[in-house]
Specification:
about 30% helix, 11 helices, alpha+beta, seven-stranded mixed sheet, six-stranded mixed sheet, 19 strands, about 475 residues
C-alpha cells in the first residue's frame, strides 16, 4: 500500500514536471521570437577617438545589451557631457538602403544631413542591428550614466536652452514615422526627420557646444510581408500582385499667414436621426472646403467646417481647442474643450476633454466617436439626435510647422490588451511553475521496507 502511494506520487510529480518544462520551453521560444526584433543605432560625436574600429562580425550579428554598454561607456566617460538622442517611432537598416544615397545618388538621399554629420564627425559608429531590449532601456542607461534626467525638446525649446559643456544634459528629440503621421510617403517623412536633425545640429554648432548624438528607433519599420501560401508552391508568389493601398488624402489645413490648424481622419462619418453620411470625400482633398468662422491665436483655436446641403440643411461642425500653461509640468498643454454641431438654429455640444496633450504635439486616436463600441470619447450631457465617428483621427492647432503633423500624443493607454494578456500569461505560468516545484519537493521516498523474516509493517491511519 505504501509502495503504491509513493509510485502514484512519483507519477504525478513526473507529469507536472513535464508540464513545467513545456511551459518553460514556450517562454524561451517567445523570448527568442521577441529577440529577432532589432533596430539600427547610429552614433557620432564632436570629440575624437571615442570608438575603436569595430572587429568584423558575422552577417546577421545582433548587438546585445552588454555589448552596447561596451560601446557607450567610453563615449559617456571620456566624451562630451551633452548627449542627444534622436528617437524615431520605427526605423530599419533597410530604410537606409531604400532611401539613402548608397548608390552615389546623394541628391536623392533622404538622409543628407545625417550622412554629412557622419562624414564630418571626428568619431562615429554604426550598429546595423541592436537588440530591442537594449534600445528599450537606452534612455534609462544614459540617465544613470550622465546623472541627468531626460529632457524632451523640440527646435523651439532647444534654441532657448543654454547648454554648458561641463554640466551633463540628456536631450530627447522624438521623430515621427509613417505610423504617427499616416499622411506622407516614408521618403518624405524620413526627409523631414533628417531636416530636423540638421537644424538641431546647426543650432549646437552655432553655440559651439560639444555633443554626442545617437539615432535609433523604438521598433523596426520593416516586417516580412504576409503572403498566403498556395498549392502551387513558393514560385507562384512571384506572380502575385500587391494589394492596392488605401488612398491617403491630405489633411484639412486652416491658414491665415501660415498653416495654423491641421485636421485629418481616415473616415469622417456623421448621423442625424440614425441616418449616416460619409463626409470623408467632402472634407479631405477638397480645394474649396468652407472654413468660414475658423479662428486661431496662441491660446485659442477653432476649426469650422460647413457643409450645404447636409440632411437637407446647412450644417457646421466646430472643433474648439485651447492651450494653457500648467506650472506643475512647466509647459503648455492643449485640450479640445468641445465639439459643436450647428444646424437649423440649434446647437449640439459634445464634451471632448480627453483629446489633450502637450501643445508642441499633435493628438492621435484610432477612434473618436459618440458610439460606445468605438470608445465613446464624444460625450453629451443631454440626448442628441447627432452621432459622429472619426476613424484614425489626428489634429493639431498649436505649434504647427508646414503641412506636417508634429509627434503625436496617442490616446491609447499604457496597459493595452496585449500587455494585459502578457501579464496574465506570465502570472499563470508562474503559478504552474510554483505548483510544479511544490509537487516535486513534496515527494518522499520510502524509509522502511518489508522483511519477510520479521513482522509485517503496519500503517496507522491518521484521522
Amino acid at each position: 500500500m505504501m509502495a503504491a502511494t509513493v509510485v502514484s506520487q512519483m507519477r504525478m510529480g513526473t507529469r507536472w514536471a513535464r508540464v513545467l518544462w513545456l511551459h518553460l520551453f514556450l517562454v524561451v521560444v517567445a523570448a527568442a521570437v521577441a529577440a529577432e526584433q532589432q533596430v539600427p543605432l547610429v552614433l557620432w560625436s564632436s570629440d575624437r577617438d571615442l570608438w575603436a574600429p569595430m572587429v568584423d562580425t558575422h552577417e546577421g550579428h545582433i548587438t546585445s545589451n552588454m555589448q552596447l554598454s561596451t560601446y557607450l561607456d567610453p563615449a559617456l566617460e571620456l566624451g562630451p557631457r551633452n548627449v542627444l538622442l534622436f528617437l524615431q517611432d520605427k526605423l530599419s537598416i533597410e530604410d537606409f538602403t531604400a532611401y539613402g544615397g548608397v548608390f552615389g545618388n546623394k541628391q536623392d538621399s533622404a538622409f543628407s544631413n545625417l550622412e554629412n554629420a557622419l562624414d564630418l564627425a571626428p568619431s562615429s559608429l554604426v550598429l546595423p542591428a541592436v537588440d530591442w531590449y537594449a534600445i528599450s532601456t537606452l534612455t534609462t542607461y544614459l540617465q544613470e550614466k550622465l546623472g541627468a534626467s531626460p529632457l524632451h525638446v523640440d527646435l523651439a525649446t532647444l534654441k532657448e536652452l543654454k547648454l554648458n559643456a561641463s554640466l551633463p544634459a540628456l536631450l530627447l528629440i522624438h521623430l515621427p514615422y509613417t505610423a504617427s503621421s499616416g499622411l506622407m510617403a516614408p521618403r518624405e517623412v524620413l526627409t523631414g526627420n533628417d531636416e530636423v536633425i540638421g537644424q538641431v545640429l546647426s543650432t549646437l554648432k552655432s553655440e559651439d557646444v560639444p555633443y554626442t548624438a545617437a539615432l535609433t528607433a523604438v521598433r523596426p519599420s520593416r516586417v516580412v510581408r504576409d503572403v498566403p501560401m498556395v498549392a502551387e508552391g513558393l514560385g507562384r508568389q512571384l506572380l502575385q500582385t500587391q494589394v492596392a493601398s488605401h488612398v491617403i488624402h491630405p489633411p484639412v489645413s486652416y491658414n491665415d499667414t501660415a498653416p495654423r490648424i491641421l485636421f485629418w481622419a481616415q473616415n469622417f462619418s456623421v448621423a442625424y436621426k440614425d441616418e449616416w453620411k460619409d463626409l470623408t470625400s467632402l472634407t479631405f482633398g477638397v480645394e474649396k472646403l468652407n472654413l468660414t468662422g475658423s479662428f486661431w491665436n496662441d491660446s485659442f483655436a477653432m476649426l469650422s467646417l460647413t457643409y450645404e446641403p447636409l440632411f437637407g440643411a446647412m450644417v457646421t461642425f466646430k472643433f474648439i481647442l485651447a492651450s494653457r500653461f500648467y506650472p506643475v509640468s512647466a509647459r503648455y498643454w492643449f485640450t479640445m474643450e468641445r465639439l459643436e454641431i450647428h444646424s437649423n438654429g440649434s446647437v449640439s455640444h459634445f464634451n471632448v476633454s480627453q483629446v489633450t496633450g502637450p501643445s508642441i504635439y499633435s493628438f492621435h486616436c484610432e477612434y473618436v466617436s459618440s458610439l460606445s463600441k468605438k470608445g465613446n470619447l464624444l460625450v453629451t450631457n443631454v440626448p442628441s439626435l447627432w452621432q459622429m465617428t472619426l476613424q484614425d483621427f489626428q489634429i493639431q492647432a498649436f505649434n504647427v510647422t508646414g503641412e506636417q503633423f508634429s509627434y503625436a500624443s496617442d490616446c491609447a493607454g499604457f496597459f493595452s490588451p496585449g500587455i494585459w494578456m502578457g501579464l496574465l500569461t506570465t502570472l499563470f505560468m508562474l503559478f504552474i511553475f510554483t505548483y510544479g516545484l511544490h509537487m516535486i519537493l513534496s515527494l518522499k521516498t520510502m524509509d522502511r521496507f518489508d522483511d519477510h523474516k520479521g513482522p509485517t509493517i503496519t500503517l496507522t491511519q491518521i484521522v
